[in-house]
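During the second year of the project, the team shifted from modelling isolated chains to modelling whole assemblies. The rationale, set out in the original proposal, was that interfaces cannot be judged from single-chain predictions alone. As a representative example for this report, we include one of the complexes processed in the last quarter. Its constituent sequences, exactly as entered into the pipeline, are reproduced here:
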Amino acid sequence: MDKVYDKKGLKKKSENLSDWYTNVVLKAELADYAPVRGTMVFRPYGYAIWERVQDVFNKMIKKDGVENAYFPLFIPYSLFKKEKEHIEGFSPELALVTIGGGEELKDPLVVRPTSEMIMYEMYAKWVHSWRDLPLKINQWNNIVRWEKRTYLFLRTLEFLWQEGHCAHSTHKESEEMVLRALDWYRQIYEDYYAIPVILGVKSESEKFAGGAATYSVEALMPDGKALQGGTSHDLGQNFSKVLDIKFQEKSGENKFVWQNSWGLSTRSLGGLFLVHGDDNGLVLPPKVAPIKVAIVPILGKKDNEVLKYCQKVKEALENENSEFPGKVTIFGDLEKSYGFRISETEIKGIPVRVEIGPREVEEKTLTLSFRIPEMTKKLMRLSEVGGKVEGILEEVQRKMFEKAKNFLTENIREAKSYEEFKSIMGSTKGFIKSYWCEGPSCEAKIKEETKATTRLKSLDAKAGEGKCIYCGKPAKFIWYFAQAY
Amino acid sequence: MDKVYDKKGLKKKSENLSDWYTNVVLKAELADYAPVRGTMVFRPYGYAIWERVQDVFNKMIKKDGVENAYFPLFIPYSLFKKEKEHIEGFSPELALVTIGGGEELKDPLVVRPTSEMIMYEMYAKWVHSWRDLPLKINQWNNIVRWEKRTYLFLRTLEFLWQEGHCAHSTHKESEEMVLRALDWYRQIYEDYYAIPVILGVKSESEKFAGGAATYSVEALMPDGKALQGGTSHDLGQNFSKVLDIKFQEKSGENKFVWQNSWGLSTRSLGGLFLVHGDDNGLVLPPKVAPIKVAIVPILGKKDNEVLKYCQKVKEALENENSEFPGKVTIFGDLEKSYGFRISETEIKGIPVRVEIGPREVEEKTLTLSFRIPEMTKKLMRLSEVGGKVEGILEEVQRKMFEKAKNFLTENIREAKSYEEFKSIMGSTKGFIKSYWCEGPSCEAKIKEETKATTRLKSLDAKAGEGKCIYCGKPAKFIWYFAQAY
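Output from the structure prediction step:
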């Protein structure tokens, strides 16, 4: 077992991001490969972060009146194919149950790749009057998409997510909901993951199959590639017309509802690990870290006294009502060497470490060491600890965000010519801001020649008078381009 | 919409339990039928109760060091069939994915009907040394079993549950875990659902496919049938031998681990609804009720004053740190009639109702009315409310439990002859305690002739000298028999 935390075996993030990532995800015990190709196990340390996201996100949505529910995993194929763009978009990724209870099924069952059809079939049954609106339901569940190339967390055959689905009486109200959900995703990324994101609308070719418009938050990974972090779809009346979801207005008139759906998945955790980690392993922001402080006893002659003091330190550092609910633990397998346990706190990305030996016991002090190099060690008396750690964790969280923010800012470039565009995509990568005519053929050519796709048009984009970076024809808006995960 | 809460449409529990049940589940908006036969939607009001169970249960298991994780939905068929009894038991209930991404799969995928095989395949990879034990992991997920006859909550093609899976170095430790989990289920039923249960071990024919022994908690439904409420399996070394899960002892010796698994599902909610409901609808115990107090404004000339006062009452009744975390709401659609809203609080089984009209505003009082007839109305001054409601809710919870306990006690009978046994099963039903020789043929005959199965041998059963109720041969233990859901 000792070799699991052998630093020699750890790949360097600076040398090969992809190898480093897989290595760290496995070594920090965030996840493991499962028997079916492309599937993975969320191990307790990784799943605890998702539980934290669930907790935070549930508070946000419940405050807004969104209620949790659960809809079936199986969607009849005959129902799924009712919306044409929807089935076209998802068809290559479907897993189908064809045998149930030993018998071949007449109508195969789609294992949900998203729940619009199954949920809205029910909405059609439940919505009758303006009084039934808005209908705001979210569910936390598992999703299956038959991906060809898979990658732990970032792209797997099965993943976990939340999907919110609302029906409203007006398009305006639905659009407001779309942007509210998008802002919740911004908060998860910026305030919890310490990852700055760009908010905006996707191009026609990149939008959700069956939707009217797709909004997303996009983050930048260390290799200069973008990660689509969460999406919020304005579905217009596309689905309500197909499934006949009508309501009676106060005036008596019958109208189709306006809908939206929005999802954040465990994919986002992949982004979290990629952005902050370093050559020594994972680095977790305090707000989502399952363990916020690891107390590491230095064992020797005075074991009992040291362990007793560790317990006192633990109690002093614990705060039930913390904004940082991660555990304070006397860390690791005490039969392992001191050095091994220290490495383990690093690989697992625990924000704060407190090493306790006979000297600390005698002096009644403790020293906080930090996982990020931007913080210097802090020595304090045990009697003075109360209430101090919260502020320190805030500082760590802020510094992590600032560092990621600087990286993002440095890697948003404006390309003045297509030559420059290609040159950037061939070297540093990152986001490129360019005018684009919004023609799908320019978009396709750029992708073919540079691997960069349109990521989004920023929410605050203003119409200007520019020229398309590819064809040179008049273009109204600046778009963000990047290679993407 | 008004007809949804039309009492005329409500079936009587006393006349036909099954019709009443389905009717109440639909009308209280706990669940609805979904497009695929045998599947259902957990609507927000029903799902909120499950969220409450999750919350309570997570606290219990985490305190004991069990960690949550997530394992894949899909199990390769080739892996699933490795344990012979396991595949034999589950084979008739499997849903199989045979097509993925448009291609036929060589090895079909089993949609998990339980996760022993997929989890233990990973355990074999993770467990090497005594230091890795015990390994205690739980997951909350969705399960698919191809049931022929389905029933909302109680038996559906897909259901939600938690499944805990532990590996230990000794059988003794594993057995202790089995009983600890069983006691958690007892707590959920007795302390939260207000349903008394009997704890014990199942017969050979009723045990889990592939396990060594199965323990369960059994509850009694109003029609005299038993509901298996939660099961905890001692798996012995059956799975560790098939999947080669070995660990090295301190002594250096290699041994197979001892395992157990235990599950509580959304089926239990069906029991909750069946036990406490009455002719007016659902009756929910305060500890799991999503809404604990419904404030019902009596609207008329003084709407504004009444609504303002309702808000004050709401604030006075709310208690963030309550053992009864259900919401206090100003209830219902205020455009609906007063009578309609009252009926709605009844159908939804809300434990406490507070009707507020101009008189209450003037006198600064409120009256608590209760969903259960065993409580009498309580008039109090608004200024005196603080802290009082917790105790009252405790009283409601206790009275509900006592009533159910009395029903259970009255319906456990000892049959002195097989004639008496048959007569009881043909009339009142309930549990029958009888000596049984533990021979599978007597068990099968009794089932064939009376529809009663062996439910369990009580945990505190003591060996005696009796005669089998069926064959008259010597029998050591008294067993519980009942017809079952």
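Chain A has three domains: 2-276, 291-392, 412-482. The radius of gyration of chain A is 25 Å.
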